[in-house]
Write a structure and sequence with these properties.
This protein is of the alpha/beta class. The protein is 32% helix and 20% strand. The protein binds iron/sulfur cluster.
Length: 171
């Protein structure tokens, strides 16, 4: 019998794809979810063609949806990320994912991230990382969480239950 598949930000799996060339390996989540699910890694920034290491980016305000901008140069990466999301989410739909764990505080993966009017400083508001926003729009019913919530055992159990329920609903 094939395992239920759950997507996860690749850096949480230990892949060194972050802007600084490092990872955010999360053994607790991998072990807990690994009992039940096959984890499918996705790194929107690396897979969309950005190098490792790379200059850090941030969200900046722009109408209703923030833009993804390189902090130092001001280069706008929004179009590149949107094009990647369209393609990759279509491919993920064919993989029948039943949940997704996203890395918090990332302008691509985070569900609630600071939106900065200038370089650094204090965020003016909160917004969704571009991949997280596209994922939620493409799969509105699918359970999606940031990894930080899963360190609370009750939240982790709840997420696992929601994934099983969503999976049954999809069959
Ligand atoms: S947070 Fe997302 S975009 Fe950033 S390194 Fe991890 S998987 Fe890649």
């Amino acid at each position: 019998m094939s395992l239920i598949r759950v997507g996860i930000s690749s850096c949480l799996l230990g892949e060194p794809v972050r802007y600084d060339g490092r990872h955010k390996h999360d053994p607790f989540i991998i072990t807990e979810l690994g009992h039940f699910f096959e984890l499918v890694g996705v790194c929107p920034e690396y897979e969309s063609g950005m190098p490792v290491p790379r200059d850090p980016m941030q969200l900046v305000p722009s109408g209703n949806t923030p833009r993804l901008v390189v902090i130092r140069s001001g280069q706008d990466m929004t179009g590149q990320m949107h094009a990647f999301c369209k393609c990759r989410l279509a491919a993920l739909a064919a993989e029948n994912l039943c949940g997704f764990v996203l890395k918090s505080n990332s302008p691509s993966c985070g569900l609630s991230v600071g939106v900065y009017p200038g370089t650094g400083g204090t965020p003016a508001s909160e917004g969704r990382g571009l991949f997280a926003a596209a994922l939620a729009a493409r799969f509105p019913e699918m359970p999606v969480v940031e990894e930080r919530w899963l360190h609370e055992p009750a939240q982790c159990s709840l997420f696992i239950e929601r994934v099983f329920r969503y999976c049954r609903h999809m069959q």
